[in-house]
Design a protein that fits this description.
Number of helices: 1
CATH architecture: Beta Barrel
Strand content: over 45%
Order of helices and strands: HEEEEEEEEEEEE
Structural class: mainly beta
Number of strands: 12
CATH topology: Lipocalin
Distance between the termini: 69 Å
Largest sheet: 10 strands, antiparallel
Radius of gyration: 23 Å
Shape: globular
Helix content: under 10%
Mean pLDDT: 79
Low-confidence stretches: 9-24
């Protein structure tokens, strides 16, 4: 007769290893790439406000905001830059913000054309969610509008670049 302890140990180990599946990939692969939006609403003297989301396979997220010439497409100055880690499902992105840099909040300040000159903001949101949709065969990153307190954030749409 077989030793019941050996059989029990064997079954326990078998179940233990079979339940150790690879953790689900926290990055929704169709989201990988760059998406850009330029705002015609903020156009002043041939300038447009541009936001670029860059999602990498390694889970890094960069959000760049800058001003460019709306006619030539030439870069003019930086507004802000955010470096973060992200996890994503088919409809939600969890952002763990690491660093946030911004231009000085002054009308008289010189325009910043070098990303390294942006000021680091130490009061960064540590974590936040973005609810989104991928549309047009994954070529559009869409964030539905939402109400936050007394402020309404309209729909935002970014094209894959």
């Amino acid at each position: 007769m077989k030793n019941p302890n050996v059989v029990s140990l064997f079954l326990f180990l078998l179940l233990s290893f079979s339940s150790c599946e690879k953790e689900q990939d926290p990055i929704y692969q169709p989201l990988i790439g760059q998406f850009e939006s330029s705002s015609a609403e903020r156009q002043v003297a041939n300038e447009e406000y541009v936001t670029v989301y860059s999602f990498s396979k390694s889970g890094d997220l960069e959000i760049e905001r800058f001003i460019r010439n709306s006619e030539s497409g030439n870069f003019i100055r930086w507004e802000s830059f955010e470096k973060a880690k992200f996890r994503a499902t088919i409809s939600t992105i969890i952002v763990e913000s690491n660093e946030f840099y911004h231009a000085p909040y002054s009308i008289t300040a010189e325009p910043i054309t070098n990303k390294e000159e942006l000021q680091k903001n130490n009061a960064v949101r540590s974590s936040y969610e973005i609810h989104y949709e991928l549309r047009n065969d994954g070529n559009e990153f869409f964030i539905p509008g939402f109400q936050y307190s007394d402020i309404y954030q309209p729909d935002l749409s970014y094209k894959r670049i």
